[in-house]
Amino acid sequence: MIGAASQKLAFDRGYRAQFAPLAGR
Fold first, then answer.
1. DSSP string, 4-25
2. Cα-atom radius of gyration of the chain, to the nearest Å?
3. Angstrom distance (rounded) from CA 6 to CA 14
4. Model confidence over 4-25: pLDDT tens digits?
């Protein structure tokens, strides 16, 4: 289960990093 949580965290980070420029604008 810990692996799944870590995967979700990594996914969230990647998702935010991808849309960071859009949100910054």
1. HHHHHHHHHHHHHHHHHHHHH-
2. 11
3. 12
4. 888 998 888 888 888 767 665 5
